[in-house]
Design goal:
The complex is a heterodimer of chains A (329) and B (205). With 329 residues, chain A is an all-alpha fold. Chain A is 68% helix and 2% strand. In chain A, strands 1-2 form a two-stranded antiparallel sheet. The termini of chain A are far apart. By secondary structure, chain B is an alpha+beta fold. Chain B has two domains: 54 residues, no CATH class; 98 residues, 2-Layer Sandwich (Alpha-Beta Plaits). In chain B, strand 2 and strand 3 form a beta hairpin. The longest helix of chain B has 15 residues. The relative contact order of chain B is 0.17. Classes of the chains: A mainly alpha (329), B alpha+beta (205). The interface between A and B is medium-sized, with 14 and 15 residues.
């Protein structure tokens, strides 16, 4: 492990942290704007041109708010929980290739922090650990709504994880690797080589479980504002709550990177066009998260469990079996 | 708009219809069929299309409030105004004191004196908007149509007692010279173009 490698890795880590923290903030701006347009409103308009500086205003508010630790909470766990959500969201980014490798000043950069050979397993695992944030935060808080939210987190946790794991199994069998770069290289031959054409069921299942994973609207039951206030976030204020927020939005961006990388050809052959294509795909998936929030109602926790265990998991198992049979013969 | 449309209370012939709701399935096979039907019917995409259509149409209904304001109806009873006579531009108020008497929340206080022309003149006139309930009795009782309600509804104040005095309510003389004084249409006045917007209430009994 030489010094250049160390410096390069540190630069990459800092870059990812900064870019995606900022993106999480700008993501809230896009969310508010797009939701507003879909509901015939204007959204934020007053801070800056077209409300663009609303993000900065929100950031200042979050950073300068008083950090309250309520009396009856379990202090250490209460303090730790937001960090888990935010940290694991960014840890998951370590195995995601954001761009094809490029050469700058004669130095080849791989825009991935660590190309480990168990990339997908690592990403799914670390993202799953992220749900311990709401779970612990909800249980450490001293009110019923947070506790309900923690219980729901556990329910969501055991439901979607099976589906996302099993649905991804079939593409993994086809590619024969767990590295996202290998996935990308498997699909370099153009649109007809994308895994979505051979694994449409797996694609839909993984997409659905991505919604459960990030807790976005059809499955937004962990912090469902109109039922349980803000769920685990009820007693949080200031930057601790902001960490939950950044974690959620960073997760949305990262899962929006993972889905195209696995199913939709990723950055293709590594040209500039391919890289722009990946950004376009990520933008679509992020937009879809907002789109569904405007259009669809939420499901109940028992409906989510019913969906995951009784519908999606059998489909995923059948998909895996059929894939295996096709590959065998 | 004709009156028979309002008087016709027969709901069934007017485009109202019962929504066709299927019976809920009782056995598990029925439930399974319903799930399959709902999954492949594409109802979710209808929802997605509707919001996308609204976004592309970009028919924004937001009123950017401090810059833009909705017109309010002529019946609206906001902060009082004192009108002037069209003929002579002098104040209409004759200082009779009826408004002070009828005010049920005791928020009007006035003082009068005899001026050099032996006419009664209002020397002091204050309304405590903190007490005023904007019932409109003062405007109703005024024999000269002098005190009326205006459309100024932005009367936030730093304290509960918020007084407006005679000079504040009186139509400015420049406005009067420009013949721009707005006459109060009074109670029962309807909002302009209200005829086109009115909808009848369905009454089935």
């Amino acid at each position: 492990m030489d010094t250049a490698y160390l410096i390069e890795t540190i630069i990459k880590v800092v870059a990812i942290l900064l870019i995606f923290s900022a993106l999480a903030g700008i993501g809230t701006y896009f969310e508010r704007k797009i939701l507003a347009f879909m509901q015939r409103r204007l959204g934020p308009m007053y801070v800056g041109p077209y409300g663009l500086l609303q993000v900065a205003a929100d950031g200042i508010k979050l950073f300068t708010k008083e950090d309250i630790i309520p009396t009856n909470v379990v202090g250490p766990i209460f303090r730790l929980a937001p960090v888990i959500t935010a940290a694991t969201a960014f840890m998951a980014a370590a195995a995601i290739p954001f761009f094809p490798q490029f050469t700058i000043f004669g130095y080849t950069v791989h825009p991935i922090v660590a190309d480990i050979n168990i990339g997908i397993l690592y990403i799914l695992g670390v993202m799953a650990v992220g749900l311990f944030g709401p779970l612990l935060g909800g249980m450490a808080s001293a009110n019923k709504f947070a506790l309900l939210s923690a219980a729901r987190t556990a329910a969501v946790f055991i439901s979607y994880e099976v589906v996302s794991g099993l649905s991804i199994l079939a593409p993994i069998m086809m590619v024969g690797s767990l590295s996202l770069i290998d996935f990308n290289n498997y699909q370099t031959g153009g649109i007809s080589h994308w895994i979505i054409w051979t694994q449409p069921v797996a694609f839909v299942l993984f997409w659905i479980s991505a919604f459960a994973e990030t807790g976005r609207t059809p499955f937004h039951l962990i912090a469902n504002d109109h039922e349980i206030i803000d769920g685990f976030g009820t007693e949080y204020s200031g930057m601790r709550w902001g960490l939950f927020f950044i974690g959620e939005y960073a997760n949305m961006f990262f899962i929006s990177f993972v889905i195209p990388l696995i199913f939709l050809g990723g950055y293709g052959d590594g040209s500039l066009l391919g890289a722009l294509g990946l950004i376009g795909k990520v933008a679509f998936f992020f937009f879809f998260f907002l789109w569904t929030r405007a259009a669809w109602p939420d499901v109940r926790p028992d409906q989510l469990m019913w969906l995951c265990w009784k519908v999606l998991m059998p489909l995923a198992v059948i998909n895996v079996v059929i894939t295996a049979l096709v590959m065998m013969f | 708009m004709k009156m028979e449309q309002f008087n016709d209370r027969n709901v069934a012939d007017n485009g109202y219809f019962l929504v066709d709701i299927e019976d809920y399935p009782t056995d598990s096979w029925g439930k399974f069929k319903r799930v399959v039907k709902r999954s492949f019917k594409g109802e979710l995409f209808v929802g997605l299309w509707v919001v996308m259509r609204e976004m592309l149409r970009f028919d924004i209904h937001t009123v950017k409030y401090p810059q833009e304001k909705m017109p309010i109806g002529p019946r609206y009873r906001a902060v009082h105004e004192m009108k002037r006579l069209w003929e002579s531009d002098t104040e209409r108020c004759i200082g009779c004191g009826l408004c002070e008497k009828i005010c049920i929340s005791d928020c009007i206080r006035m003082d009068t004196k005899i001026d050099e022309n032996s006419r009664k003149e209002v020397s002091e006139y204050t309304i405590n908007l903190g007490r005023c309930i904007f019932c409109g009795y003062c405007a109703e009782v005024c024999p000269e149509l002098a005190i009326t309600h205006g459309g100024e509804y932005e009367n936030a104040s730093e304290q509960r007692e918020h007084f407006v005095d005679y000079d504040y309510m009186l139509t400015p003389i420049d406005t009067m010279k420009a013949k721009a004084q707005k006459e109060f249409e009074g109670f029962g006045a309807i909002t302009p173009h209200e005829d086109e917007r009115v909808k009848k209430t369905p009454l089935s009994y």
